[in-house]
Amino acid sequence: MAFKKRRIFDLRHVQAQQMATTASHRRSHPTHNYSHNPIQPQHRFRQIGEWFTENMRNYCQTTSLHGFSYITRQDISRNERWFWLVVVILAIITSIVLVVVSWYWSQETPTVTVIESSHFPTWNIPFPAVTICNFNKISKTKALSFLDQMQVPVGINRSELHNLFNLTLLPVDTMISNDSLQIYDRILSLNNLTLNRLTQQLSPDCIEMISNCIWKGINTRCDSLFQRIDTMEGQCCTFNYFGGKLRTRFQSDHIALRDAAIPRVSRFCLTP
């Protein structure tokens, strides 16, 4: 069935048709007839049917829902109007069925969303640990101050202290001569230090890396929130860290000497 081309919906044309229909209806049914003649039941039903038909026609011509306007249009064939009437009725039935099914499902398995609290504190939300490591493994200010306080064994130049400080920056597998290891061991023993404690003394403090800390809306000292831990990057500052506390130390309190001509520094071991 071929459909003809139709013009765009004209609201003025529809309003003119409605006014003409209303005027003809008033002429065919004068008001004085109703006042003198009693209304019969069949005539009342006919009036209700005419009222419903007129309002339904007005609704179909003015609604924005797709398909309704084609039911009452006069510029299309009768078969087209019946086709669109069937389509609209099927769409209404489908919508009703979907609403009923959705209501039935909601009754069978209701879903209730409740806000536990609108004033839940943010500090009770699980937050990951934050670790900050300084690019400089040794603080220059602390190194110069500590250099003046350290004692040097007899016969050893103070320049060896610089080499000892550099030892804290070297990788674990760095090759060091046997004589240098003996000198470093004497310096550490004289000052009652280990290489691990020396690293802690020379590394930057947390309060030097972080200028301002706010906790629960209150300015708080950063050193009370951050703690120092040993990492692969050296001494770092961490917040909200609750893991197993690990500390690095040498296998002995002193630098171990090997029998080889060019020994290595003993490896670090992680112990709980």
TrEMBL record:
Any stretches that span the bilayer, and where are they? 82-105
Q: Which domain of life is it from?
A: Eukaryota
Name any GO cellular component annotation: plasma membrane
InterPro entries for the chain:
ENaC (IPR001873)
Chief subcellular location:
membrane
Provide the alphabetized UniProt keywords: Ion channel, Ion transport, Membrane, Sodium, Sodium channel, Sodium transport, Transmembrane, Transmembrane helix, Transport
Report the GO molecular function annotations: ligand-gated sodium channel activity
For this chain, the family text in UniProt reads:
Belongs to the amiloride-sensitive sodium channel (TC 1.A.6) family.
Q: Write the protein's name.
A: Sodium channel protein Nach isoform X2
Q: Please tell me the species this chain comes from.
A: Drosophila mauritiana
